[in-house]
Amino acid sequence: MRESVNSWLLLNLVTDRSLSQGRSLVEVVAEAVAGGVTCVQLREKTCSTRQFLDEALALKALLQPLRVSLIINDRVDIAMAVGADGVHLGQSDMPISHARHLLGPDCLIGISAESVQDALAAEQQGADYIGISPVFSTPTKTDTAPALGLNGIRQIRELVRIPLVGIGGINLTNARQVIAAGADGVAVVSAIMAAESPRQAAEVIRRELG
């Protein structure tokens, strides 16, 4: 799986059940994938471990036959339990070395970077890709550093060789700019999760990305 990191990085959906307008998570994700989402990151901050596990299992059952990668946010234990393709860790989560020891060499490990220093450290410590967060200000996460902007992507791109994914305030109007600045992909939350038609929203953004 690690050999094909770039193949699924283009359009990532980061889930947020609070934006789903009463629809099930599986329903929204299925529509988004039909519209061109290439990777799904399951992010849950408030539910129980059992509910998180159930959601992860349901998404894996949906995504695996479609060859769409499932990444678990924060929770190495959930990633291990469901055999996810990878885990995405923040700066205060489990260190990369410990996660790698538990998950093995083939599981993808992404790291959120809020600065150039974070990005350099992530590459040095063996991350498979970096989530540059946030690129633009966003209401879906309130615990992030000030927005890095497109110049932040350019600075990090000049210094690291591993793939970069931009996240934070990304939508149809700016997704192409994020790629042009040097990112290999974008991660989208509300622009797809809250859309009346997640499929159509994903299709439009995917076309913008080329």
UniProtKB/TrEMBL annotation:
Residues 11-192 form the Thiamine phosphate synthase/TenI domain. Its EC number is 2.5.1.3. Its cofactor is Mg(2+). InterPro entries: Aldolase_TIM (IPR013785), ThiamineP_synth_sf (IPR036206), ThiamineP_synth_TenI (IPR022998), TMP_synthase (IPR034291). Mg(2+) binds at D74, D93. 4-amino-2-methyl-5-(diphosphooxymethyl)pyrimidine binds at Q41, L42, R43, E44, K45, N73, S112, K141. Keywords: Magnesium, Metal-binding, Thiamine biosynthesis, Transferase. Pfam families: TMP-TENI (PF02581). This is Thiamine-phosphate synthase. It comes from Trichlorobacter thiogenes. The lineage of its organism: Bacteria, Pseudomonadati, Thermodesulfobacteriota, Desulfuromonadia, Geobacterales. The gene is thiE.
